[in-house]
């Protein structure tokens, strides 16, 4: 080992490199040139976000180096294989004047520059460089071996976890790689050294990222992007709302750095929307179907049935199936495992026109052979130039019988016929949702159903109101005591209880309401039990009864329903016992109930802040729709990889949209980060002040090893909300919305969702009528629920909706429904609290500005303005009838002035308003914690202390507000006799003066006094202010 002065270039990582291998990836390495000293890192295969964490050393002689005209050149290349070579990915030139010593080194990120004008370069590289006099020359590289050729690098992964001292939270797993030349070491001593070096690299990377994330607060324009999971935390409870990351995720999914703020804004798109069909006479003809999406042509093949098929030559039977072949794409129907010559499939195959690789379509009929090769019974060949085109909304093309030809191509006809229909259409065809698509040929089994587009309808929800009035003859098991009786009601997983009757009696009285959420068709029963509180930890059932839902009356308004008495079955007996045994119980307790299904309420399964439907449950109370909402889900761009497939990032994305009771789900586009759906959906609009929600998810249920297990969840990619009232009528909005997801590591942009929206109003009068009426049905205002009831009922409604939609085919899974309905929006979050506080401050800032302006006017800071205000005040005092017209005219002109700066696109998720760009890691960990908490006791204690400090400040502010109100009350309460005496004498004098003098004169004098020049002012507080501050409050009476 030698202690010499060295220039150390620590190549850490790179991001967003340009793909060079023709498969959307690259195999980058870095070459550093310092005064003709060349050194390079190892190659990271198949990664656009490589991590090297490798130090390169150069001789540094300060006596011969001029810092003014010399630099370090860092170049990034792609290593081409199997043909040797390299492709340029970018470079960075660092002047020597920026070099520091080891103690001052920092991690820096540089944008890659071009070498030539026409070079195609993008991305960034992270470096640390410094001068060291104590670095060992052999720390990360073995001694040079003579003439041994370079071989493919061996990737050595090591991960470890470390507890963060600031937040006591587990750091993400971090993977490091040893130097590429270490594979040449074969002796055991070198292997031990290698392990130590890997651990040192791990430590350096952990310290680097901890310093980067925790030590520096994130600036307003810097969004920290991370995408990781610690495998050691896989056994911990899943935090609510956390994005699911598969354990296969490795280095190329990791992303650090700063992102341009423009990437988080809504962008306009100029797309050629609508369907156009070629017509030789009039050019292109436009159709009204699917006019909000891009036109996509598909070749459809409908295989209906076959007849007169020949039996097998060996088995004497036929197990037929059909194989449709177009170029390299093959699709096949199911085969029949029975002896039949008249099979019927009725299956549709779809091939996108963009990927057609052949001029002929071949349809084979084959016989399934379990022992050897399947026999070909015949085929039918179609010339693609002769295939007809179907223009919607024409009727479907009728299938025809085709005689099978010999598969060898000799042109002779063989026995058998097949019924087919072949046509060219678009995604507007009714066969599109159920068709087998060529781009999803790798999906088999149950996964075929999970990739199809579907429309779902939420179950019809009712509020079940159980009014527990009274009970009679409640005899406990211990006849020597009076019972403490309460009623427990149960519907499915919902259980509610009344209070214990305040009087110990056998005829208790409650008159309490219990409200449940039930869904049609009614599957559960209402179970009522009357229980006796024998002990604080023991309840004894006195009687019980089960009632079906269909016997209850449906109420549409506030009129009460008829109450009924129900006999209770004694605990231990019931309908399952023989009639003779039940007749032995001649005495029976009974309960008085009033039960109804509330049809006049809207059962809320989402927050009222972004509600999508306000109609009551009963269809008789619905009004006519006021408009039509059309959504074109075009596609997505720049999605982040959610899983690994064949060593590269992959995403199987689908989109879900929810408005009202209708949910839609697009088909899943496999293995692409820029899916194109081009599907259009329509909703009826009953209230314009509603919100539509769109979410993008990664499908993890494709029936393959790469898509996860049956218990895996569909990972969330992002969500977009659009309020219909912010849209202009009859206008098409075509925009790209950023998909933002808040993860435990910070805010992450996961891509862009491209959609087109059109809101069509049917009647302007109905729209205006809606703006003057309540948002919710009238029952919400006549008999409102408490805040706790609304939250509990909303949670139960969400569970019912998620359960019912999860039973559909394909299922809309619970994690998708919860994310779309924002089930956890009511839980505590420091970030949301800050966001709401600053929202209030933003509203009050306008009033503060007006107050500041009035203060400047009163202080004559701007004399011209002060003179004009005095003149205006004089005019308004002399002509008071102009005050209100002037105010409304002023607001009218302000509205006209703001029209030119009106929003040009729908609002989107605002990261600044959400306070997501500057949130700390501990606050994020608290937000993603489970409920109840799963964190350590020490961490919970720290957070509790922080919450107490915040609550202490709020407590002080609330106390100050209460003190001001109490001072006003003390003016006439004689709490301070002298102050009250002075105030009532002042009131007497003021009444005499105001009666004797004209009101205009008093108003003018008061206004001119307030607007007087600073020369006539005192810097001390005014007399009314001094008098008010001396009034007593009740603060001194607090303990």
Automatic annotation (TrEMBL):
SUPFAM superfamilies linked to this entry: C2 domain (Calcium/lipid-binding domain, CaLB)
Keyword vocabulary terms for this entry: Calcium, Membrane, Repeat, Transmembrane, Transmembrane helix
Q: Where are the transmembrane segments?
A: 882-899, 982-1011
The protein's matches in Pfam families, at most eight in alphabetical order, are given as: C2, PRT_C
Membrane-protein topology: Multi-pass membrane protein
Q: Which intervals carry biased composition (Polar residues)?
A: 240-257
Which subcellular locations apply to this protein?
Membrane
Which PROSITE patterns does the record associate with it?
A: C2
Residue ranges of region Disordered?
Answer: 135-190, 231-258
User: What positions does the domain C2 occupy?
Assistant: 1-110, 280-402, 443-566, 610-737
Family designation = Belongs to the MCTP family.
Q: What is this protein called?
A: FT-interacting protein 1-like
Q: Which organism is it from?
A: Camelina sativa (False flax)
């Amino acid at each position: 080992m030698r202690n010499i002065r060295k220039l150390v270039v620590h190549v850490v990582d790179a991001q967003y490199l340009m793909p060079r291998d023709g498969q959307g990836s690259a195999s980058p390495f870095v070459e550093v040139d310092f005064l003709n000293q060349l050194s390079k890192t190892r190659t990271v295969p198949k990664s656009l976000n490589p991590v090297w964490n490798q130090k390169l050393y150069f001789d540094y002689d300060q006596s011969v180096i001029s810092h003014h005209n010399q630099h370090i050149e860092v170049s990034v290349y792609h290593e081409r294989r199997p043909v040797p070579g390299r492709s340029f990915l970018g470079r960075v030139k660092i002047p020597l004047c920026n070099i520091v010593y080891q103690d001052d080194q920092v991690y820096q990120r540089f944008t890659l520059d071009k070498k030539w004008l026409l070079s195609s370069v993008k991305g960034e590289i992270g470096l640390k460089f410094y001068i060291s006099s104590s670095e060992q020359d052999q720390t990360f590289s073995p001694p040079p071996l003579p003439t041994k050729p370079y071989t493919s690098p061996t990737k050595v992964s090591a991960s470890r976890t470390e507890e963060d001292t600031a937040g006591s939270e587990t750091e993400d797993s971090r993977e490091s790689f040893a130097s590429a030349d270490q594979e040449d070491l074969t002796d055991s001593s070198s292997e031990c050294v290698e392990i130590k070096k890997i651990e040192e690299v791990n430590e350096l990377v952990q310290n680097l990222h901890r310093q980067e994330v925790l030590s520096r607060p994130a600036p307003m324009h810097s969004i920290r992007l991370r995408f990781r999971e610690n495998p050691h935390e896989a056994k911990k409870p899943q935090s609510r709302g956390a994005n699911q990351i598969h354990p296969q995720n490795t280095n190329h999914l990791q992303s650090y750095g700063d992102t341009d703020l423009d990437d988080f804004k809504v962008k306009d798109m100029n797309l050629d929307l609508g369907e156009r069909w070629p017509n030789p006479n009039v050019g292109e003809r436009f159709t009204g179907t699917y006019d909000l999406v891009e036109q996509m042509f598909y070749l459809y093949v409908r295989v209906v049935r076959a007849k007169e098929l020949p039996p097998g030559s060996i088995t004497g039977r036929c197990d037929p199936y059909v194989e449709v072949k177009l170029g390299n794409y093959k699709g096949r129907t199911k085969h029949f495992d029975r002896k039949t010559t008249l099979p019927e499939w009725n299956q549709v195959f779809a091939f996108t026109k963009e990927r057609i690789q052949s001029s002929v379509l071949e349809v084979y009929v084959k016989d399934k052979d379990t022992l050897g090769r399947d026999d070909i019974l015949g085929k039918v060949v179609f010339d693609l130039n002769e295939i007809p085109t179907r223009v919607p909304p024409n009727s479907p093309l009728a299938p025809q019988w085709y005689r099978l030809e010999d598969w060898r191509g000799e042109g002779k006809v063989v026995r058998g016929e097949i019924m087919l229909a072949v046509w060219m259409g678009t995604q507007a065809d009714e066969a599109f949702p159920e068709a087998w698509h060529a781009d999803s040929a790798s999906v088999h089994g149950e996964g075929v159903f999970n990739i199809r587009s579907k429309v779902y309808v939420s179950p019809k929800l009712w509020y079940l109101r159980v009014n527990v009035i009274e009970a009679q003859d409640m005899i406990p098991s211990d006849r020597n005591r009076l019972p403490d009786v309460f009623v427990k009601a149960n519907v499915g997983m919902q259980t509610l209880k009344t209070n214990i009757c305040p009087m110990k009696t056998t005829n208790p009285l409650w008159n309490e309401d219990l409200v449940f959420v039930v869904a049609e068709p009614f599957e559960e029963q209402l179970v009522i039990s009357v229980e006796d509180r024998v002990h604080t930890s023991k309840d004894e059932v006195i009687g019980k009864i089960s009632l079906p839902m269909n016997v209850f009356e449906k109420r549409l308004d506030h009129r009460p329903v008829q109450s009924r008495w129900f006999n209770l079955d004694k605990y231990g007996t019931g309908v399952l016992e023989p009639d003779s045994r039940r007749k032995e119980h001649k005495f029976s307790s009974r309960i008085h109930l009033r039960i109804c299904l509330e049809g006049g309420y809207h059962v809320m399964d989402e927050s009222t802040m972004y509600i999508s439907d306000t109609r009551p449950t009963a269809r008789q109370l619905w009004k006519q729709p006021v408009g039509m909402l059309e959504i074109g889900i075009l596609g997505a761009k720049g999605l982040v990889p959610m899983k690994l497939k064949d060593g590269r990032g992959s995403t199987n994305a689908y989109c879900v949209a929810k408005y009202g009771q209708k949910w839609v789900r697009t088909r899943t586009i496999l293995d692409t980060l820029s899916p194109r759906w081009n599907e259009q959906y329509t909703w009826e609009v009953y209230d314009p002040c509603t919100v539509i929600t769109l979410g993008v998810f990664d499908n993890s249920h494709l029936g393959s090893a790469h898509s996860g297990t049956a218990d895996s969840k569909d990972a969330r990619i992002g969500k977009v909300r659009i309020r219909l009232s912010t849209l202009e009528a009859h206008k098409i909005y075509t925009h790209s919305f950023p998909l933002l997801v808040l993860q435990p590591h910070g805010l992450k942009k996961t891509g862009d969702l491209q959609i087109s929206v059109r809101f069509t109003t049917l009647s302007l009068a109905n729209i205006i009528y809606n703006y003057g009426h309540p948002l919710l049905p009238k029952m919400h205002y006549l008999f409102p629920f408490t805040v706790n009831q609304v939250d509990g009922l909303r949670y139960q409604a969400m569970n019912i909706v998620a359960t019912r939609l999860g039973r559909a085919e394909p299922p809309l899974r619970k994690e998708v429904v919860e994310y779309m309905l924002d089930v956890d929006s009511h839980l505590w979050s420091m970030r949301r609290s800050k966001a709401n506080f600053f929202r209030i401050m933003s509203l009050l800032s306008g009033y503060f500005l007006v107050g500041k302006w009035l203060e400047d006017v009163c202080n004559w800071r701007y004399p011209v303005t002060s003179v004009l205000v005095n003149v205006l005040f004089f005019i308004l005092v002399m002509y008071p009838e102009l005050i209100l017209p002037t105010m409304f005219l002023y607001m009218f002109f302000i509205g006209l002035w703001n029209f030119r700066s009106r929003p040009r696109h729908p609002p989107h998720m605002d990261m600044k308003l959400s306070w997501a760009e500057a949130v700390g890691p501990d606050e994020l960990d608290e937000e993603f914690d489970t409920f109840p908490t799963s964190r350590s006791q020490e961490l919970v204690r720290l957070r509790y202390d922080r919450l107490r400090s915040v609550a202490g400040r709020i407590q002080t502010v609330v106390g100050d507000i209460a003190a001001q109100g109490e001072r006003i009350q003390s003016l006439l309460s004689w709490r301070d006799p002298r102050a009250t005496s002075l105030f009532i004498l002042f009131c007497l004098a003021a009444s005499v003066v105001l009666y004797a003098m004209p009101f205009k004169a008093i108003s003018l004098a008061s206004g001119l006094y307030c607007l007087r020049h600073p020369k006539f002012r005192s810097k001390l507080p005014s007399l009314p202010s001094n008098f008010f501050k001396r009034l007593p409050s009740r603060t001194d009476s607090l303990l």
